[in-house]
Structure formats: C-alpha cells, structure tokens
Amino acid sequence: MSETKIVCNSLGHTYPNGVEAVRDVNVSIDQGEVISVVGQNGSGKTTLVKHFNGLLKPTAGNVMVGDLDTLENAVGLLARSVGYVFQNPNHQIFAASVKEELSFGLKNIGLEQDEIEKKVGEIAEDFLLTEYLDLNPYRLGFSLRKTVGMASIIAMEPDVIILDEPTTGQDFLGVKAIRDSIHKLSAQGKTVIVVSHDMPLVAEETNRVLVMCETELIFDDSPAKLFANDEILNKTNLLPPQISSFSTKVGLGKSKDAILSVEDALKSVKTK
Questions:
Q1: Count of C-beta atoms within a 10 Å radius of residue 242
Q2: How far apart (Å, rounded) are the C-alpha atoms in residues 62 and 72?
Q3: What is the pTM of this model?
Q4: Which H or E run contains 191?
Q5: What is the distance between the alpha carbons of residues 235 and 41, in angstroms, rounded to a whole number?
Q6: Cα dihedral angle (89, 150, 120, 73), rounded to 10 degrees?
Q7: CATH topology of domain 1-81+159-223
C-alpha cells in the first residue's frame, strides 16, 4: 500500500455567497491514523474534510494529498487515494442495483470483470449485503443504503477513507458493523477519518481528535485529552461520553486524561 499523507497549509475556504467556512487550518495526517473531526453544526468540519479528496477546492492556502496538490488535480484522480462516504447515501448512490453500485467504482479504476465479480462478492459478504445484490438500493431502508454507500467506497481500497456521520440513522447492528469496519481498515494500515457527533464512537474508536469551532481548528490531541479539557468542551458545547462524565464525578482517571470506556474505568478502580 502506498503512503498517502494529507497536509493542509493555511487552508481557507469561502463559499461563493461570501460565507467563510474554514479559516487558516494547518494540519498533517499520516498514513494509518484513525482520526475524528468534531464540532457543532456550522463549525467547518465537513467543509474541511471535503478538501481532502478535492470535493471542495481551497480559496486560501493549499491541501496536499501525497504529492498531489488538490487545486491542480481532479476529484477522479484524488478519489483513487481518498474515498469519501457521504452522510446522506442519496447523494452518493446512483446505480439501479446494489451489485451495480458496488461495481461502479471498481470499473472506473480499470479492474477486469472477473476481479470485479470477486471483489463485489467479498465486500457484499463483509457488509451483509449478499441477499440484496439484485435489489434497487432505494428499495432498502436508510441504514442499509448507508451501508451500501460505505461498502462501495471501501471496495475500491483507497488509502484514506472519510466517513461523514457514519452512525447517524443506524440501528445497533449498523453501528456495530461500522465499528468493525473501522477496526478492519485500521488493521490494514488505512487512514480513517470520521466526522461525527457520536462521542462514544469518537472516544472508543479513534486515536486523535480535531475540534473545529467557528471555522477554526482549536484542538488537536487524543480523545482522553479532549474529554478532560473543560475549556474546549464548554466552548464547543461538546458532551463527553457518559462513562467519562461519571468517572470524573467519582474521581477515577488522571486529571489530564479522561476515562473513555468501562474497561478503562475498571482498570482505574483496580489500581486505586
């Protein structure tokens, strides 16, 4: 697998209507990291990550994906390295059947038909979609359509996968499948970037958090550091996971590192 590092240099983006959405963001993301991007609606988080595969182009500064400047390269080329799974699958799915949707990207990157058939079978099995292959995606419920959208991007095996609010609208099994997918992608050395309001997902499945607030990047550190930082939490109105709040109230964990899971809380109790 190639190394696809994403680097933002003084990135800014102002929409044609004059609304500034991202201001002076400097950040570097290495291959293999599992990162979450959080913040309230309108903070700039989705605008930020849409620059990583060229869906949006900087109006100030630049973004490098590997050795490619996103200003100078088309989305189609950048998408070979950075796959983007939309929050709303209706913005992504166009094929008449699940099988065709899973095949679409594979055809675009030039795979032979027999290899496409093999990959579609494997990805359908991984995401529990085998029984739906011949159905129109729009006959499926919202949760399953999101799964189809995610599977179609992962099938192309990009180095970087961006998941925009992946757990929104998902049931328990859907959330579990997403968490399992993040584990699998991480084990393969993929970079996973999760935009989310789901703080338990952020705490338990990612290793680094970027916090956007009013167009600016104001925090870049671990989930344990974020959920112990009252100043940032208050400024952004982010609510830590219940286990983090409870552990703080009963005096578990370290002052600069929040408890992120029940397992962490039990370990902390045993060491007291």
A1: 10
A2: 10
A3: 0.91
A4: strand 191-195
A5: 14
A6: 90
A7: Rossmann fold (3.40.50)
Q: How many CA atoms lie within 13 A of 64 on its CB side?
A: 13
Burial class (CB in 10 A: 0-12, 13-18, 19+), 9: middle
Strand partners, 254: 257
DSSP 8-state symbol, 62: E
Q: What residue spans define the domains of the chain? A: 1-81+159-223, 92-157
Question: Along the 272 residues of the chain, how does pLDDT read in single tens digits?
Answer: 457 899 999 999 999 999 999 999 999 999 999 999 999 999 999 999 999 999 999 999 999 999 999 999 999 899 889 999 999 999 989 999 999 999 998 988 888 999 999 999 999 998 889 999 999 999 999 889 999 999 999 999 999 999 999 998 888 888 888 899 999 999 999 999 999 999 999 999 999 999 999 999 999 999 999 999 999 999 999 998 888 887 777 766 656 788 887 777 777 666 65
CA of residue 20 relative to chain centroid, distance: 23
